[in-house]
Design brief:
Helices cover about 65% and strands about 0% of the residues. It has helices at about 20-30, 35-50, 50-65, 70-85, 90-100, 110-120, 125-135, 145-155, 160-170, 180-190, 195-210, 215-225, 235-245, 250-265. It is elongated and about 70 Å long.
Length: about 270
């Protein structure tokens, strides 16, 4: 299996705030309309007084906006201050910065330290990244069972890459028993979100009858959908090979199924 990718920084992940937080809200309104200079001016004194939301906001401004020159060290400073107060998205972003060595020295153990509390708070990106770290043994001992645990938490919240990875792990019996039906379930959820790898794997499951009744029409349908992105040569090649075993009428029916599936937003195909 190819290496799992670490999910990148969240560039805007604020939540609703109480009406009394007028000063912070002023900065947030400025941030949301793209007036980062005003947000910076309003949030800086609040952040210096220990407001975790303002600290997180400053981290966002310093990591990538047009208000100031990008400053990874300043972003890491403010994210850390917010993270130490339990701000989940700040913990996650700080973990990403340690994973990438952006604004701080690369340190996978430090990344793990910050992903962990964010994941416990339900942050899907942190949950996914912990799964990837345990899968690869990156900063922690390799442990596929724990990887499955974190991928599952993220997948159940709709994280498409986590859903796909769970499908792969059920297919290969990594951290779980081989279970074609479970693999099919997770591939299906990822495929509905447009994951072409999951769509391609569904095609293989349909053509071999693993986890689902054998059906060349649905195999062709999924490969056709995956190939339509223009970024999945494997699906296109598999479709072409399968067509050699199909009649013209069968191909036409499979193409109709693909059109109908796309029209339904890939749901219930």
């Amino acid at each position: 299996m190819k290496k799992f990718l670490i999910i990148p920084l969240i560039l805007l992940s604020f939540f609703s705030f109480p009406a009394w937080a007028n000063n912070f809200s002023t900065g947030l309104a400025a941030y949301e309309r793209g007036d980062f200079a005003t947000a910076l001016r309003v949030w800086t004194p609040l952040a210096e007084q220990g407001d975790e939301k303002a600290q997180y906001g400053l981290g966002q401004i310093y990591i990538k906006t047009y208000a100031v020159a990008e400053d990874g060290e300043a972003a890491a400073k403010w994210f850390k201050l917010a993270a130490e107060q339990g701000h989940g998205s700040a913990q996650y972003n700080l973990g990403v910065m340690y994973s990438a060595g952006k604004g701080v020295a690369q340190d996978h153990k430090a990344a793990f330290k910050w992903y962990s509390p964010a994941a416990e708070q339900g942050h899907t990106g942190a949950q996914y990244n912990l799964g990837a770290m345990y899968y690869e043994g990156n900063g922690v001992p390799e442990d596929h069972k724990i990887a499955v645990k974190w991928f599952r938490f993220a997948a159940e919240q709709g994280h498409v890459s986590a859903q796909y990875n769970l499908g792969v792990m059920y297919t290969k019996g990594q951290g779980v028993s081989v279970d074609d039906k479970a693999a099919f379930k997770w591939y299906s959820l990822a495929a509905e979100q447009g994951h072409t790898g999951a769509q391609t794997n569904l095609g293989f499951m349909h053509v071999t009858g693993e986890g689902v009744p054998q059906d060349n029409l649905y195999a062709h349908m999924w490969w056709n959908i995956a190939a339509s992105s223009g970024k999945n040569e494997k699906a296109a090649q598999s479709r072409e090979v399968l067509e050699q075993e199909m009649t013209a009428a069968e191909i036409a029916e499979a193409e109709k199924l693909a059109r109908e599936c796309i029209a339904r937003g890939l749901k219930g195909c």
